[in-house]
Structure formats: structure tokens, C-alpha cells
Structure to design on (332 residues):
């Protein structure tokens, strides 16, 4: 049976470095991590977690894979997930994938080597399907969030179509017809949000032009592009469907000296703290309920494994809500 010294030798690193790879509190480069995890796979080595998990058998460790590190939406969500896990004596271990399939695979391997009891993850685009299906076949407890990539897994989704529908409907009912939707490119989410936006116009028997939907993947220069779009199309309202983009929208409006809602109305996706402070109407997500459902689904999987029973995977879709504040002008 292989030991940690064998892993270090095959990877060409020191034993302490191997320990650091297995301990999330230490930083190791992706190159070193890959060498160690490749050696772990080749030797079929199972690491006895750095903190000696056998000494804390009462607690289960749950890995959480999130795709963005600087998104306040995930910050708020993780806070609620962690609170709920702590209530059930679960220990969360947060890791980031940056929407990168290679990093996601490494995180899976690291979580399993660290003897995590389950994983909640936002699937990365073009992830390693065979590897995840291998985990599913072994009945490793998994819950996917926001993206329904693996039909065999318990899934929690947000009805993004409803979210943008509620926002666009609110603006239309307030008298707005020239509404620009601004979004960051993300096919997994954007398509549903565009459908909700256009459906609100159809239900109100209003035309919607393609030019009113602006999609960008260039967050760094989005502000200037947004200013150009506003000057060209002269919207009376903007619906921004991503927090990172919404910051650029707000900065563009400030630099253009356009007041909210006097000169232009604004609704944004995600009920982030700064939107609450500035009185901006938002589409809010049920963070607390998301945390509760994740724990419930994982707990059910743990129980099913103990009882050697099986159930069909759950697919739960949660409704967002509209938090109306003071950023929408009534046009009569």
C-alpha cells in the first residue's frame, strides 16, 4: 500500500508540500497541485486527512465548489449555506473553480482525497463528465446548483426566466417601453433570462427589439460600452442581470450625470447590499432556503446510503422575488 512518501517521490516534491496540497489552509500553485494529484491517482493513494478526520467522526465535511470568488451573490449564498451546515454539525470547505473544468476536476480529487463526505457544486462548463459519472456510480453524495448538467444528481435551480419577467413586468407596468437589458455572457443563465424579458413584452403586447438586449463578456471595458449604448438608444430604464455588470451600469450612469430614477430607472438582478443602501429595485434570491435544501438533500443521501436504498434524483426550482424600492420612475 502506498504512503505519503511514495506520493512525494513520484510527484518530485517534498512530503511537507504534499501535506500542504491536502490542507486547504495552505496555498500551493496549480502546477504543484497537479503533480501531487496526478501521483495520488497513479498510486491510488487515499490520504488520511490532515486534521485526522477520524477524531471528529461526529462531523461531516462538505466541500462547496463555487465558480466566482468576487461575486457578492455567492458571498451572500455561502453565508446562509454555512449557517445551515453549522446548525447540523456539518463542516463546510469552500473551493473555487473559476468556471474552469480542469480546476473543477482538481477540486473533486482534492475533496475526495481530503475525505469530504459530500460535495455541493456549481458545474463548470465542459466539465469532466466521465469523472462525475464515476462518482455518481459510486453513490458519492453530490448536489448540483444552478446548472442542470447531470440528470442523475439532486439539483437546485433558480427560475431565472421568472426573475427577469418580474423585473421587466414591473418596469412595463410603471409605464416604460424603452427598456434595455444588459447581461454578462453566460449561456447557462442568459438564455433563460432573455426569455423572461421578452415574454414580459409579449404579454404586454409591446414590441421588443434585438438592440434592446445587450450581452457582453468584457466586464473590464463594459462601462464605456454601456455608455455608448445608452447614448445611442436613449432607454428610459435599464434591467441589469448580473451584479458584476450592474456595478458598471451604475458607474456609467454616475459619469453620465444621469440620476436614478429621475433621468433613468434601474432594476438589477441579485439583492446585493449596495443595492439596498442606494434604494435600487432588485430581483432577490431565497438564499436561506437554498442553504436549507442543500443540507436536506445531502442528509437524505447519507441516510439512503446507510439504508442501502435509492430514490430518483430531486430537481427543485426556487422562485426569485422582486424587491421594489425607489429606483423606478412612474411614467404616465
Amino acid at each position: 500500500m502506498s504512503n505519503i512518501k511514495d506520493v512525494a517521490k513520484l510527484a518530485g516534491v517534498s512530503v511537507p508540500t504534499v501535506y500542504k496540497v491536502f490542507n486547504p489552509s495552505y496555498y500551493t500553485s496549480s502546477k504543484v497541485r497537479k503533480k501531487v494529484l496526478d501521483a495520488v491517482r497513479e498510486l491510488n493513494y487515499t490520504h488520511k486527512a490532515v486534521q485526522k478526520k477520524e477524531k471528529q467522526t461526529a462531523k461531516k465535511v462538505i466541500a462547496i465548489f463555487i465558480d466566482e470568488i468576487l461575486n457578492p451573490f455567492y458571498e451572500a449564498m455561502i453565508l446562509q449555506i454555512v449557517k445551515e451546515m453549522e446548525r447540523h454539525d456539518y463542516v463546510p470547505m469552500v473551493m473555487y473553480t473559476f468556471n474552469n473544468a480542469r480546476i473543477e476536476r482538481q477540486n473533486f480529487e482534492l475533496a475526495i482525497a481530503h475525505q469530504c463526505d459530500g460535495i455541493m457544486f456549481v458545474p463548470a462548463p465542459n466539465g469532466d463528465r466521465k469523472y462525475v459519472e464515476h462518482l455518481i456510480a459510486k453513490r458519492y453524495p453530490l448536489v448540483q446548483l444552478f446548472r442542470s448538467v447531470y440528470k442523475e444528481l439532486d439539483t437546485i435551480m433558480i427560475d431565472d426566466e421568472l426573475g427577469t419577467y418580474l423585473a421587466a413586468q414591473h418596469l412595463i407596468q410603471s409605464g416604460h417601453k424603452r427598456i434595455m437589458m444588459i447581461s454578462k455572457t453566460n449561456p447557462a443563465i442568459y438564455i433563460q433570462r432573455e426569455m423572461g424579458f421578452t415574454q414580459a413584452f409579449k404579454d404586454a403586447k409591446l414590441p421588443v427589439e434585438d438592440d434592446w438586449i445587450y450581452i457582453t463578456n468584457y466586464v473590464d471595458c463594459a462601462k464605456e460600452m454601456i455608455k455608448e449604448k445608452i447614448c445611442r438608444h436613449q432607454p428610459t430604464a435599464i434591467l441589469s442581470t448580473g451584479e458584476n455588470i450592474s456595478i458598471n451600469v451604475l458607474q456609467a450612469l454616475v459619469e453620465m450625470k444621469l440620476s436614478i430614477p429621475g433621468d433613468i430607472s434601474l432594476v438589477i438582478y441579485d439583492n446585493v447590499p449596495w443595492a439596498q443602501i442606494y434604494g435600487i429595485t432588485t430581483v432577490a434570491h431565497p438564499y436561506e432556503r437554498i442553504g436549507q435544501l442543500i443540507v436536506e438533500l445531502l442528509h437524505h443521501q447519507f441516510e439512503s446510503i446507510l439504508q442501502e436504498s435509492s430514490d430518483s434524483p430531486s430537481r427543485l426550482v426556487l422562485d426569485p422575488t422582486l424587491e421594489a424600492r425607489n429606483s423606478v420612475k412612474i411614467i404616465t
Observations:
- The chain has three domains: 1-47, 54-158+289-318, 160-284.
- The longest helix spans residues 287-306.
- Confidence is low (pLDDT under 50) at residues 50-57.
- Residues 222 and 292 are 36 Å apart (CA to CA).
